[in-house]
Amino acid sequence: MKKRTALFNAIKGLIVGSSMLIPGVSGGTMALILGIYKDLIHAINNFFKDFKRSFFLLAQFCIGAGLGFLLFARLLDYAMQKFELPLMYFFIGAILGGIPLLIKQSGVKKGDLKGLAGCGTALLLGAAIVLSLGFIPENIFAFGGGFSIKSVLMQLLTGIIIAVALILPGISTSHMLLILGMYQTMLKALENPMGNLVFLGSLAVSTVIGVFLTTNLLEKAMNKFPQVTYFAIIGFVAGSVIDVFPGFPLGWEIPVCILTLGAGYAAINFMSKFSEQKE
Questions:
Q1: pLDDT, tens digit, for every residue of 191-246?
Q2: How far apart are CA 262 and CA 69, in angstroms?
Q3: Which of 5, 76, 90, 264 is most open to solvent, judged by the fewest CB atoms within 10 Å of its CB?
Q4: What is the rounded distance in angstroms from the CA atom of residue 76 to the CA atom of residue 78?
């Protein structure tokens, strides 16, 4: 059973890792609909308290995610160039396929009018936050670089925002870097990592701090206010679907996109139900 669980954790990591290569698709969203998101949050938040269990879960997931990056980078790049609409519709179907499980996990009941009203507000707020990010001009917070108090603070802020974007579903990390004016700076730094060790090191440290802070707050919210938190996350997910919508297909792409949309929905719905049964 442990070997089987480890294999499924790695497969889920592989799916999440490969999905992050698709522009606008959030890895957090895919982790959420695959049913491993809450486990990852708990593992990060309790890394030192339950080191063995947390380490192995994160290792299994990260190995799978790394393989997803390596194995599918060229394939997905080719598919995006040749079959962009059918592929995007597949991912939209996959995202939609996970929403029924998220609603079930929230614990909301049909007769609870007060709870439904709060959940509806949280859903709209979550969707609005994700959609509003698209209206923020790129490079609005750009700075000249160099070593200064401003640049150090910017690096710390960037690391924390990267962490938030990595943890929260529906938010694109690359998009947040563009808004901060740090995307090109980071790419250039990665070309010569040894020459930019201080820059990358401070960014890594602030990202790790941000990850632990974000997961801590998120797990507390999930435990204390599960209904509102889950519906806010569903709002993030719904907002990301609208944000990545590639437009309507034409001609031969119409039936193909309908099929890929259905295939994505069915695949994730099946995996979600399978994860539920396994638990």
A1: 777 777 777 777 788 888 888 888 888 888 888 888 888 888 888 888 878 877 88
A2: 25
A3: 5
A4: 5
Question: How far from 225 is each of 2, 129, 222, CA to CA, in Å?
Answer: 31, 19, 6
- 172 exposure class (CB count in 10 Å sphere: 0-12, 13-18, 19+): buried
How far apart are the C-alpha atoms of 198 and 191, rounded to whole Å?
A: 14
How many other C-beta atoms lie within 10 A of the C-beta of residue 198? 12
Distance CA(107)–CA(236), nearest Å, equals 18
Residue 216's domain spans which residues?
2-278
Can you spell out the DSSP letters for 175-211? HHHHHHT-HHHHHHHHHSTTTTHHHHHHHHHHHHHHH
CA-to-CA distance for 91 and 89, rounded, in angstroms? 5
- Exposed e or buried b per residue across 74-109, where buried means at least 16 C-beta atoms within 10 angstroms of its C-beta: eebeeeeeebebbbbbbbbbbbbbbbebbeebbebe
Q: In a 10 Å sphere around its CB, with 0-12 CB exposed, 13-18 middle and 19+ buried, how is residue 250 labelled?
A: exposed
d(CA 211, CA 40): 11
The count of domains in the chain is 1
Residue 248 has pLDDT above 50, yes or no: yes
Distance CA 12, CA 198 (A): 34
